[in-house]
Amino acid sequence: MQSPLLMKSPLLVRSPPLPHPSQPVQMQLEGVYIQPSMDVPTVAPYYMTSFTSTPSSIDTIQASANFPPEDTCLLHTHVSYSKQPIPELVKNDHGNWTLTLNVPIPEDMVHPTLTSFSYTIKYSTANHHWASAVQSHILLAVRGSEAIPEGISADSGESGITVAQRTFGDTATMRLSSVLGIKESDAQGQWNHFMDSQQIPFNVRIVESSRLYLQLQVSEYPTAVMLRALSVDVSATWLDDQEGRRLIQELNEAEMRADDAEAQAAAEEVARKVAEAQQAADEQAKETAEANQRAAETQSAADERARKIAEDEAKKASSERQAADANAERHRVAKESAETTAKNCRLAREDADRNYQIKCQERAAADRKAETEKHAREDAERRLAAKAPKAVDQAKLKKVLDNLPADRRCSAGYAWVKEAGGYRCEAGGHYITWEELHSA
User: Fold this and answer.
1) How many CA atoms lie within 13 A of 192 on its CB side?
2) DSSP letters of 366-409?
3) Are the C-beta atoms of 82 and 63 separated by less than 8 Å?
4) Half-sphere exposure (Cβ direction) of 376: Cα atoms closer than 13 Å
């Protein structure tokens, strides 16, 4: 470990001269100035917007230009960190903080072996008047260990300098190396630099699913106007296990040959089963075809018998139908004859009934007419007795009636009644004028 390096850093941000500590705090566009707790010179703070931007001349804390080393036999992995300021520590309220970097482990190597681990830590502070304890740890976390959060982590509940070794809750995290350094500070208002550069040889075989970390622990008393800048470069060198790769390759080839043989045997078994299944299917199809043929022949014979039976039944049914039709025709003719006879009898009875009714009506009418004529004669005789014409008139009436046509004579024998114009029979249907009577 090298001793702390005290030099002027090109990381300083230019700003106007600071006011005297006795003057009140001022706010300007170039930055924020806070009155320090001690009457000492201070360094102008960096711009609050320059977290990730650095001047082009920052050659003292940038990564090494020689990384990675040119070695065709080895594999190198790299990780770096560079911040001015450190964003998580801008408020200067953390005295104990940790930076954790995850160093990549080659994934395409067979049992990679860590042969070398190199890192360079450059930590600079300003406006800080006490020493800082800087501890670096190389940690190896194997499978099943707890993952360590990467980046800056701070403990706001602790402050002050401590050099106690950090412990881990799980036994699967191992500490491969630890280096302790003390960074000095002065009160001259300058940047103070700490640099730790290590190259540690290893011979550690890495198992699968492991993780490699570089962890930087800093313990210090921060001031209200403290400025920080940090740059870390890490390089790891790895060696491939050629014998293990050869064995794994042979194992893979043997497994592939075994898999190929198993696949070939499985394919042959499948082909054999397919052939057997095809043969069984062909035999089954042949048996099915023969059974179908026999069934077809049996069905054909049954169909022929059924056809003959159907023809015989059809002929029988036709004969029965013809006989039934003839019988039905005879019944129809007999029925029509009976219906005609019944109709004629009915018509004859109806005619006889009508004739009888007509005769009855005629006899009733004749009886009524005779009765009426009888009553009329009786009435005429009674009136004639009252109005009997003279004997001379009766003799003339008889003479005139003998000369008149038959239709003007009263065949019913009604009496003649004298009127103003002559004589009229009492029935009112015949009339004789006075002229006809005087001309007789």
Assistant:
1) 21
2) HHHHHHHHHHHHHHHHHHHHHSPPPHHHHHHHHHHHHHS-GGGS
3) yes
4) 16
In a 10 Å sphere around its CB, with 0-12 CB exposed, 13-18 middle and 19+ buried, how is residue 9 labelled?
A: buried
CA 288 centroid distance within chain? 47
Q: How far apart are CA 285 and CA 308, in angstroms?
A: 34
pLDDT in tens, 253-290: 999 999 999 999 999 999 999 999 999 999 999 999 99
Query: What are the tokens at 252?
Result: 């893979």
Q: What would the two tokens of residue 385 be? A: 């007795």
Antiparallel, parallel or unpaired: β 31-32 and 416-418? unpaired
d(CA 133, CA 219): 5
Digit-coded pLDDT (tens) for 194-210:
999 999 999 998 888 89
What are 359-390's pLDDT values in tens digits?
888 888 888 888 888 888 777 666 655 554 55
Q: Which residue has the tokens 């730790």?
A: 196
Report CA torsion sign: 335, 336, 341, 346: positive
Q: Whole-angstrom Cα distance, residue 311 to residue 320?
A: 14
Burial per residue of 222-259, b for 16 or more beta-carbon CB atoms within 10 angstroms, e otherwise: bbebbbbbbbbbbbbbbbbbeeeeeeeeeeeeeeeeee
pLDDT of residue 160: 52
Judge whether 212 and 114 are in contact, CB under 8 Å.
Answer: yes
Q: Looking at this protein, which amino acid is placed at residue 11?
A: L
Phi and psi for 84 in degrees, rounded to 5?
-145, 105
